[in-house]
Write a structure and sequence with these properties.
Layout: H1 4-7, H2 22-29, H3 39-44, H4 62-97, E1 101-103, E2 111-116, H5 123-139, E3 146-150, E4 153-159, H6 167-184
Antiparallel strand pairs: 1-2, 2-4, 3-4
Length: 193
């Protein structure tokens, strides 16, 4: 399952399901009462998509994705996604180079998961500090980050997927994060020179 509305610049809602076993999917969903049977379709090999999902009818969601692919081209989409991956790696490098922070997951795509991690602070206090940091960053109105839990640890999460994100945006986000740490937690060590 791929959700182009999450990273391929397609409006909500558009999902693409890929399978190498369409016969299994069809047998799971197909329920064809007599009034929907069309012998012509069976004989011609035409695929009736009502047999591949829960609903019998649906909107033409694929048109949104088709328009994006048509507009950018496959290479244009690849180029933009590669750039997002590069920018995520750049942010991960900033996190890794700052001893105040700890990266909590690899960064193979456009998501960077990390947390503020001052020395000598227990897990309960770490969560409180990171919730406060997330709130301060988001209150700036310039950057929006979210959170998740990884191995039970409260984790800050930055998703890089906006069409026009640049290195300047990454540096601005890092500046806001660093300033928020310094302002919220003045008794903690500041960023090294």
């Amino acid at each position: 399952m791929v959700n182009p509305h999450k990273w391929m610049f397609t409006p909500l809602d558009c999902s693409a399901f890929h399978t190498t076993h369409p016969d299994v999917q069809r047998s799971a969903f197909s329920l064809v009462p007599e009034y929907l049977r069309t012998p012509e379709a069976d004989e011609s090999g035409v695929r009736d998509y009502m047999d591949y999902g829960l609903q019998l009818g649906r909107r033409f969601r694929a048109l949104k994705l088709w328009m994006v692919i048509r507009s950018f081209g496959l290479e244009g989409l690849r180029r933009r996604i590669r750039e997002h991956i590069r920018l995520a790696a750049m942010l991960a490098g900033l996190v890794d180079s700052d001893p105040r922070f700890e990266r909590l997951a690899p960064v193979p795509l456009g998501v960077v998961c990390f947390r503020y991690r001052p020395e000598g602070v227990g897990e309960g206090e770490l969560e409180r500090l990171n919730v406060a940091l997330l709130d301060a960053v988001n209150a700036s109105g310039d950057v929006f980050i979210s959170h998740t839990r990884l191995d039970g640890r409260y984790t800050l999460r930055v998703q890089i997927s906006h069409l026009r994100t640049t290195e300047e945006h990454i540096m601005r986000a890092w500046e806001i994060l660093s300033r928020a740490v310094d302002e919220l937690l003045p008794d903690r060590p500041t960023q090294p020179a």
